[in-house]
Amino acid sequence: MNREHISNLSSALRQVSISQDPQQAQQQSTANSNAQLQHLESSFGNQSQQTQSRITHFFKNQPEEGFTLFSHRSAPNGFKVAIVLSELGLEYNTIFLDFNAGEQRAPEFVSINPNARVPALIDHSNDNLSIWESGAIILYLSVLYGLQTISEQSQIMSWVFFQTSGHAPMIGQALHFRYFHTQQVPSAVQRYTDEVRRVYGVVEMALAERREALIMELDTENAAAYSAGTTPLSQSKFFDYPVWLVGERISIADLAFVPWNNVVDRIGIDIKQEFPEVYKWTKNMMRRPAVVRALRGEQ
User: Fold this and answer.
1) 240 DSSP assignment
2) Which architecture, in CATH terms, is 47-144?
3) pLDDT value at position 53?
4) Where is the signal peptide (predicted)?
5) pTM, entire model
6) Coil, strand or helix: which one is 120?
7) CB under 8 Å to 113, separation ≥6 — which residues?
8) What is the DSSP pairing of strand 120-123 with strand 67-71?
9) Relative to the CA of 98, which of 48, 206, 208, 252 has its CA 20 to 30 Å away?
């Protein structure tokens, strides 16, 4: 992947040194945790006239149309929603919450997201309807704009649930135990990294099957040679042609994976070498102008 395109999400994780040895990582994690705790205690002690004024002011003066996305600069799930909004060409504004100031616990925000986490979305054109959890948000947008048939929708929902329950949480846990946990737990790092690899194996197989079907359909001139095994599929002119998880066009089933694929190298997984179809799929998505804008935080 071309790292030059990335963005707020990558820069938020830039402070993490992949080459740190375990003892240094533990010391840094402990020091960071203590500093954050002291800062939080100080913040909540004084708090938060400024925080309350910013969040309160927004909720008292909500726009009449468009969308407001509540996110955080290091939250892949927030960028997931931004990517879908951007792909749809929708007008939206992002409020990046300040966790150190406790903005995620502001009563007004908790009223729209009882989990007090990001992302959350307000649809101002629909009576300020609020939706929380990234999977629910992108499914809402997908249904709202009728992006697929009923049969496609069921398949898309399967992939979205798979991404939100199996893909993102496993990468998140691997990142936590690798860089942020107060003690080194190698077995936890291994367990979550192995599970991420298993998940990518599922996606790799699905994309490979889609590619084989596409090549056999479009490259009819050489289909017999491919079937006989005398010519590898990699010789087809359609070998790098974009394929998607559901149907013939990109959908939220694909886009949901983008921001997490963008940080998976931080847990020692090289998708280019280990999962070539996932790599090509991700590269095709990362080159899309709307995806680039969303990852850069442009609206």
Assistant:
1) T
2) 3-Layer(aba) Sandwich (3.40)
3) 81
4) none
5) 0.83
6) strand
7) 70, 120, 130, 132
8) antiparallel
9) 252
pLDDT of residue 150: 77
Residue type, 2: N
Distance, C-alpha 198 to centroid of its chain: 18
- CA atoms lying within 13 Å on the CB side of residue 105: 9
**Residue 49, beta-bridge partner list:** none
Q: Which residues are within 8 A (CB) of 183 and not within 5 positions of it... i.e. 6 or more apart?
A: 26
Q: Say how far apart CA 269 and CA 192 lie, in whole Å.
A: 12
Distance of CA 52 to the CA centre of its chain: 29
Helix residue ranges, H only, 104-246: 107-112, 134-144, 150-162, 168-175, 186-218, 223-228
Gap between the Cα atoms of 222 and 233, Å rounded: 9
Would you call 183 exposed, middle or buried from its count of C-beta atoms within 10 A (0-12, 13-18, 19+)?
exposed
Instruction: Indicate the pairing of strand 67-71 with strand 92-96.
Output: parallel
CATH architecture of 149-294: Up-down Bundle (1.20)
DSSP 8-state code for residue 128: T
Under the banding of pLDDT at 50, 70 and 90, the label for residue 19 is very low
Question: Which residue type, as a one-letter code, is found at position 108?
Answer: E
Q: What is the pLDDT of residue 50?
A: 57
Cβ–Cβ under 8 Å, residues 69 and 82: yes
Give pLDDT, residue 38: 54
